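Progress note, sequence design subtask.
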C-alpha cells in the first residue's frame, strides 16, 4: 500500500516543516533531515516549509518534459560552473539555483547540493516504496513549449499555455514562449537518472 507524503516537524505549532513519510515509528524526510522528534503536522499550520523539501516535492510530482536536459548550468555563475540537476518542468536546480539555457560541458563536476538532494529523494523512494503524492500543479504536464509569465517576475517556472484563454493552465497571464524552454522529442528509453 502506498505511503502518503506528509508534513513533519519537531514542533506541533511552528518551526520548519519537512515532507516525509512515517515508517512505523520512524520518520524519513525528502531532504534527509533526521530527528527523533519529527511528528506529523497539519497542512494549515504556521510552519515554514523546508526549501529543499519543497524542491523535492516538485521533483517527485512533476514528470520530465520531452527533451529536457539532465543537467544545466546556473545563471550568472561565470567560470565557476558545475552541472546542476534541473527540477522537471522548472528553471530551478535541485540545489535552488536558477538555471540558464546552456547545457554544461560533461566534464564539469556535479553540483554537490543537487547530488545530495537527489540522493535523499532516491533513498526515500527505496525505503518507502510507492508514495502517495499530492497532485502536480496543472502547468507542469508534458508539452513541447514553455511560456514565461507576464512581467517576467517569476522565471523559475515554465508554464503551459491554454490556447483557448491565452493564459497558463494555472490562470496566470503569459508573455511569450521562452527559447530556453523549447524542447524536442523525448529520447526513447531515457530513465531520467542523474548523470554521473
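Output:
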Amino acid at each position: 500500500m502506498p505511503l502518503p507524503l506528509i508534513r513533519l516537524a519537531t514542533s506541533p505549532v511552528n518551526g520548519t516543516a519537512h515532507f516525509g513519510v512515517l515508517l512505523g515509528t520512524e520518520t524519513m524526510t525528502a531532504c534527509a533531515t533526521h530527528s527523533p522528534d519529527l511528528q506529523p503536522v497539519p497542512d494549515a499550520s504556521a510552519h515554514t516549509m523546508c526549501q529543499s523539501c519543497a524542491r523535492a516535492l516538485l521533483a517527485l510530482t512533476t514528470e520530465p518534459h520531452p527533451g529536457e536536459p539532465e543537467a544545466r548550468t546556473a545563471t550568472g555563475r561565470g567560470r565557476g560552473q558545475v552541472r546542476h540537476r534541473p527540477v522537471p518542468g522548472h528553471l530551478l536546480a535541485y540545489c535552488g539555483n536558477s538555471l540558464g539555457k546552456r547545457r554544461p560541458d560533461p566534464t564539469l563536476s556535479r553540483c554537490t547540493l543537487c547530488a545530495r538532494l537527489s540522493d535523499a529523494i532516491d533513498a526515500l523512494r527505496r525505503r518507502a516504496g510507492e508514495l502517495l503524492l499530492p497532485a502536480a500543479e496543472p502547468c507542469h504536464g508534458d508539452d513541447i513549449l514553455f511560456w514565461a509569465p507576464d512581467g517576467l517576475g517569476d522565471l523559475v517556472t515554465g508554464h503551459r499555455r491554454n490556447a483557448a484563454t491565452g493564459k497558463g493552465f494555472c490562470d496566470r497571464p503569459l508573455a511569450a514562449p521562452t527559447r530556453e524552454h523549447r524542447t524536442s522529442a523525448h529520447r526513447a528509453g531515457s530513465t531520467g537518472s542523474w548523470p554521473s
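The first strand starts at residue 3 and ends at 4. Work on this subtask will continue into the next period as scheduled.
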